[in-house]
Amino acid sequence: MSEQQTGIPQQVDPLVVRVLAPNPSPFTYTGTQTHLIGTTDLAVIDPGPDTPEHIDAIVAAAAGRPISAIVITHTHRDHSPGSRPLAERTGAPIVGCAPLVLSDTGPRLEAGFDVDYVPDRILADGESVSGEGWTLTAVHTPGHTSNHLCFALPEAGALFTGDHVMGWSTSVVAPPDGDMADYMASLERLMARDDRVYYPAHGDPVESPRRLVRGMMGHRKQREGQILRLLREEARTIPALVERMYAGLDERLFPAAGRSVLAHLVDLRNRGIVAETGDVWSYA
């Protein structure tokens, strides 16, 4: 895939154009990718942050064609706030995931929850929104967030994976809303599908979906194994685990890594494998 430029429409499939938002960061990679679906009337998936230049770029990419649905995978602030100005500009309804109001004081301040998100229609698992020549069907994939949806586009054999599966990194699973057991179950669900390609919100299209998902599941199992080996040696705090597990990691990402380790620990605790005393975790 050729290098993507902010605000420039890029055709990735006869039915799919992507537009990159100007919000690069250690968590968003090159930025949030908004996808426009269709050829006559359009759906817009994840219009991204409320950035006027990005909303202008989406409208320009539509090139006068009507936008009939604004579709949201989840309500982190790098995905859904742009839905409101885009709806005001186009009159399109906002559809997709349920609202989620949760105070998140964690390390991803730019990806905290969009508390002002109000959809016109919530799509349950298996429900669809459609236009001329396209259908988007919701696939409930909790884990990264409890309200996360992927969207299948059967006309292209494609799945829009939001942040559940990304094209550059594994997803952050951060308690209290992020749940490792749910995340792994959602990956298992994707393994059972036969999608030809994934279009994530961050990173390039994934052209070997099952291979990537299998690798992601193996990576999480490896992290779990690391935690258990370290706790068998001695009880440790989360920062001590992160220091041992993430050698060479950008220090700006240490807090997020700590949340991911916490997600594993909560899952292991719920399975009766580890225990916590204050901020110290031990092998049960």
TrEMBL record:
Location of the Metallo-beta-lactamase domain: 31-202
Classification via SUPFAM superfamilies: Metallo-hydrolase/oxidoreductase
Pfam families, sorted: Lactamase_B, WHD_BLACT
Domain of life: Bacteria
Xref: SMART domains: Lactamase_B (SM00849)
CDD domains tied to this protein: metallo-hydrolase-like_MBL-fold
InterPro entries for this protein: LACTB2_WH, Metallo-B-lactamas, RibonucZ/Hydroxyglut_hydro, Sec-metab_biosynth-thioest, WH-like_DNA-bd_sf
Name of protein: MBL fold metallo-hydrolase
Record organism: Sphingomonas immobilis
